[in-house]
Amino acid sequence: MKKRLASLVLVLALTLTLFAGLGATASAATFSGGSGTRNDPYLIGTAAELAAFRDLVNGGQSDISAKLIADIDLGGQSWEPIGLTKTGYTGTFDGCGHLVSNVYIDTLSSKISIVQSNGSSHTIQVAGFFGVVGSGGTVRAVGISGTVTGDLSASSSAGLYLGSLVGTTFGTVEECFSTCDFTGLTVKNNDYVGIGGLVGLSEADSVIRNCYNTGTVSATVTCTSSTHNVYQGGLIGLGDGQVVNCYAACPVNVDITRGTRRLGGVTGNAGGVDYYNCYFDNQLCSAAYSAGCHFDSSSPFDPSYCGGKTTEVLRSDKMPGVLGNAFLKDTQWLNKGYPILAVMTYGQEDENWSQWFEDEAMGDNIDREIFNSLIPAELQNKDLTQSITRLEFCAVAVQLYEKMGGAALDPGALTNPFADTSADVVKKAYALGITNGMTATTFEPYTLISREQLATMLTRVYKALNLPGWTLATDHLYSLDYSGVTPFDDDALISAYAKPSVYFMVKNEVIKGMTPTTFAPRNTTSAEEAIGYANASREQALIMAVRMFQKL
């Protein structure tokens, strides 16, 4: 009980959540932190704050940015989409691995006039958690669950595009999932219809990466003319742009009056779409899908874009590796056994920390104001005892760099060489020389980092701040003083590149050994790898960041 009471005190110190009614007026004070810029996004931890953010976007502030700092329950109330202007939502919305549950989508937007990539205008109506994600807009690392339903009738000469997460996207959607069920949904239209388990319409320059849907996609559609097409897919309704490392594991059913039915396990059409490494469960979809990704009621599309797999294959140990670094095996049956996203908490991760962390965080050696300022959104309300990923440590390192006086870089102006993440914290850390990629084009954001890597990256923060002219490429020209430090007994296991950083940080009391005589720099055996013996934890990274701020 004593520990629990102390933990409650720390919860108050760590958490910045404001409690407000759903009808609260949107203002800076409405949010748990931030100013809404891309460098300082609004921090959102409640349904009221999320609704306030939506109202600001739909009121004309289409380029504001936000990060979620907690799972959010929308309580099954009818949800108006975020982004209902012709430019759509053009900011960065980072879910930081959190879940938005009990989303209830049952209304269609008014007409929106959009300009397509070929320059032509198109009038649409949309439904989804987001309405239109515009060019340059990003939605990442958020999961949604709930219901898509209602009697949706579009106005004349307006395309109708419906997705549980996004109605129409010109931007980037990555590391997102939906388990929303489309049920009791009827659609009436006299133009194109696109219904997707995640996205209704993806435009030519859009990117959808590392996403999945496991919610049923079912609808009854009435068209006024037999010349109109109804596109329906497990992930995307009407697809264009780039779709990479995605899957759908869901039934896709539509009853249609007039019109042409175009259905697919992943998407309803493939014209102009650049698909790579995308799959669907061909046992949940009807036999019509077995020829490939797409199915037209009159003839099959080219099946080479992606393929159907059995339920057993999609749930196999091998599948996460096939999909890439963003996915893990679902060992706890959180997603019916299908691969899960490494970034997501799935509502299962409670805020937690070790006793040593609580003792130090609440002790006299830590300035709690500094401590609170160094916790990035990516780690708020998370289990801090877990190993820290490369992406999460980038968030800690960038936060530390900026709080120690480093100039905040504009992520929109930074080049991103990586094909597996567009996270702003990664782009910043790479530009500053704090980290590099695993290859020239891959970052592997969810690979865990070792204790020696943590020491090295923290030292690079110090170098970037204090050594004029230092860059990662010129690092070999600079040296640090770590004289007088007694080598650890496992010194031979510390990689040559990491030794100066490890001992520099030890000398300055930023980092300690695993024991008084051992450092545990990295996992060197399969047994150590299995238990994560030398993995750096989230709480270690936070405490070391605070020590570095105070001592260096």
Which features would summarize this protein structure in a list?
single chain, 552 residues, alpha/beta, Pectate Lyase C-like, 2 domains, seven-stranded mixed β-sheet, six-stranded parallel barrel, 28 strands, 26% strand, elongated, disordered N terminus
Q: What does it look like?
A:
The protein has about 550 residues and is α/β, with parallel strands linked by helices. The protein folds into 2 domains: about 90-330, Pectate Lyase C-like, CATH 2.160.20; about 355-550, no CATH class. About 20% of the residues lie in helices and about 25% in strands. It is built from 12 helices and 28 strands. Strands 5-6-9-14-19-23-25 form a 7-stranded mixed β-sheet, with no helix packed on it. It has a 6-stranded parallel β-barrel with strand order 8-11-16-21-17-12. Strands 7-10-15-20 form a 4-stranded parallel β-sheet, with no helix packed on it. Helix 7 runs parallel beside helix 12. The two termini are about 35 Å apart. Mean pLDDT is about 90; it is low at about 1-25, about 285-290 and about 300-305.
